[in-house]
Amino acid sequence: MDQYPNRGMKDVEEPPNYGEQRKNQDFVGIEPDSSRDEEFAAEMTADDADDADTELAGDMDENTTFGWVGIALSIISFFIWPIIFGVAGIVLGFMSRSRGADALGNIAIAAGAVSILITLFILPFV
User: Fold this and answer.
1) Which of 106, 77, 80 is nearest to 92 (CA)?
2) Of 7, 42, 48, 79, which sits with the fewest C-beta atoms within 10 Å of its C-beta?
3) Do residues 22 and 34 make contact, with C-beta atoms less than 8 angstroms apart?
């Protein structure tokens, strides 16, 4: 039995298109893409946000620590033991870059390399 006897197929509305162009009109009766915009999301609570902030802060502290120590060793290498501290600064710079702190790692690598180059090529002639 038909629950709505007066409603025919001609009264059924088309789904909203929201300005999208219909694709593949040459395939009659086949609509590969949905013309409706659907959104799926998971619920997030305040506890989840606090956990995410804590995890990110811990990762960034560890990443930047290698970079800052590498920069410190590279700067110290300008004054004492340039080869040893310069190489240590370069190694920590590469470790920092591999963990995502690119700027600090690049600075540590450059400063350590400059210190070693100055020691090997300029200081012997001064």
Assistant:
1) 106
2) 42
3) no
Angle made by CA atoms 55, 56, 61, in degrees to the nearest 5: 100
Q: What 3-state class would DSSP assign to 6?
A: coil
Give dist(CA 47, CA 89) in Å, integer. 39
Question: What pLDDT is recorded for position 88?
Answer: 95
Dihedral of CA atoms 115, 116, 121, 122 in degrees, nearest 10, equals 20
Amino acid at 74: S
| Torsion of Cα atoms, 98 then 102 then 108 then 113, to 10° | 80
The yes-or-no verdict on residue 83 having pLDDT over 70 is yes
What gap in Å lies between CA 75 and CA 93, rounded to an integer? 12
Beta-carbon count within 10 A of 96 CB:
28
State residue 104's pLDDT score.
92
